[in-house]
Design brief:
- The longest helix has 16 residues.
- It contains 18 helices and 13 strands.
- By secondary structure, it is an alpha/beta fold.
- The strands form two sheets. A seven-stranded parallel sheet has the order 3-2-1-4-5-6-7, sandwiched between helices.
- The relative contact order is 0.11.
- Helix 1 crosses helix 17, helix 11 packs across helix 15 and helix 14 crosses helix 16.
- Strand 6, helix 10 and strand 7 form a beta-alpha-beta unit.
């Protein structure tokens, strides 16, 4: 199959779930082209980007100037230079009556330039609903051809709805050929918004379990307990409540250390909070780490927490990959009753689930785990088994190819095997 992937920016170090799908398709013999904007920091790339020569398969949108006069002048140059390649496509991109602000701002014109040399695709897979809205327009004006598949992954079906209204995806639900969500929580939301329930299934974000070796967890000889969180320093990750929980815990358990892997806009706020709570010796902000460094930190840890919350702007998480990675490595975990996380963490089996924004509850579960280290190994084994069964990327990539093939048969509702949990472990009823 010839497959077009439409994404936001590529490559992005935090979006390994997209990278895993792309490399999985390539290793299965399919031709993949990527359409995206250039990343803000090209120095941070997963090694598979180079291994699979993905930059050679990536077609970038020309930078769109913020200055409207300069944008217009460069846009006219692009129009003249490329007009002979696809005159009707370029003229349709300027249809102000149909596409309003997107056309007036010349955004569509700039965005279709990389598509002008593309041949028809079998599948156009849009990563995130917001980019599927663009893909729908590209297909409408004839810039790209193929079956349009949309993956809803998080902010696109939470925060984006709050910003743009719950009817924003109505045209996409009508014109799109098939839809995927990374958890049942978001599938049900899409159906409530108007998506045909026979055109949408759960297809989880996978990880390469072989990269995250299992290790039975046991007490350290020095008695120190290492606690870890991995995630962007943004509101929805709920890291503030992890810090506050550690501050409460430190009053009774001096021999703990909390390592936070990641960076983001709340870094300064967290630094101030750590100082205010007098836990600078207990809480360490480690910044971004590459995958081998993250694996090494997790290998030395005893407990992992993911204190995700619903942000003020409505942003929510699916079952986050960092939790899957920690569970794959045998760490007992603490998550929250948030978004798709309860579909990943089995409360009392692989870890614990607590309410959002509840530092006391996090501290209570941490206290239990610290005082009951005999629970670590069975919880870790349960977590590893669950991730291997439900989120192994090789199984999921096989499933993705099967989904593509069924969509190409023009009969997408015929997916009984994908809705049966006994056959398809990524579907959660």
């Amino acid at each position: 199959m010839r497959i077009a992937i439409i994404a936001g920016r590529f490559p992005v170090i935090s979006e390994t779930f997209i990278l895993n799908q792309i490399t999985g398709l390539i290793t299965r013999g399919h031709e993949v082209h990527i359409y995206a904007s250039q990343p803000e920091d090209a120095s941070k790339m997963h090694p598979n980007v180079e291994k699979y020569n993905l930059l050679q398969q990536t077609h970038y949108i020309p930078p769109i100037p913020n200055n409207y006069l300069w944008r217009f002048l460069l846009g006219m140059i692009l129009l003249v230079v490329n007009f002979a390649k696809a005159p009707l496509v370029l003229l349709r991109s300027l249809n102000f009556l149909k596409y309003a602000k997107k056309a007036i701002s010349l955004r569509i014109l700039y965005e279709v330039i990389p598509l002008l040399k593309s041949q028809p695709y079998d599948i156009i897979h849009c990563q995130f609903g917001v980019f599927a809205l663009d893909g729908m327009v590209y297909r409408d004006i004839g810039a790209i051809k193929g079956k349009l598949i949309t993956s809803f992954r998080g902010f696109d079906i939470s925060k984006y709805l709050q910003e743009h209204g719950e009817d924003i995806y109505n045209p996409l639900f009508t014109k799109g050929d098939f839809f995927l969500t990374n958890c049942e929580f978001f599938r049900q939301r899409a159906i409530k918004l108007g998506c045909n329930e026979n055109k949408i299934i759960v297809h989880g974000s996978g990880i390469d379990c072989s990269r995250f070796p299992f290790k039975p967890r046991e007490s350290s000889s020095d008695g120190k307990v290492q606690i870890v969180t991995t995630g962007r320093l943004v509101e929805k990750k709920g890291i503030e409540y992890g810090i506050r929980a550690i501050a409460k815990l430190a009053k009774h358990h001096a021999n703990i250390e909390y390592k936070i892997i990641g960076d983001g806009i709340l870094k300064a706020h967290f630094q101030e909070l750590i100082a205010e709570l007098n836990v600078t010796e207990k809480v360490k902000l480690l910044g971004w780490k590459n995958q081998p460094e993250i694996i090494e930190i997790l290998n030395q840890a005893h407990i992992f927490i993911a204190p995700c919350i619903t942000a003020a702007d409505g942003n929510q998480d699916a079952p986050v990959n960092t939790l899957k990675e920690a569970m794959a490595m045998g760490l007992p975990v603490i998550g929250t009753l948030h978004g798709g996380i309860p579909e990943l963490v089995e409360d009392g089996i692989s870890g614990f689930l607590v309410p959002e924004q509840d530092a006391d509850a996090i501290a209570a579960k941490l206290t239990y785990l610290i005082e009951h280290p005999e629970a670590w190994e069975p919880m870790g084994r349960a977590g590893r088994a669950y991730v291997e069964k439900h989120y192994d990327m090789h199984k999921l990539n096989d499933e993705l190819v099967a989904i593509y093939q069924q969509v190409l048969l023009n009969n997408p509702p015929e997916f009984p095997e994908f809705f049966d949990p006994s056959v398809n472990p990524t579907y959660v009823s």
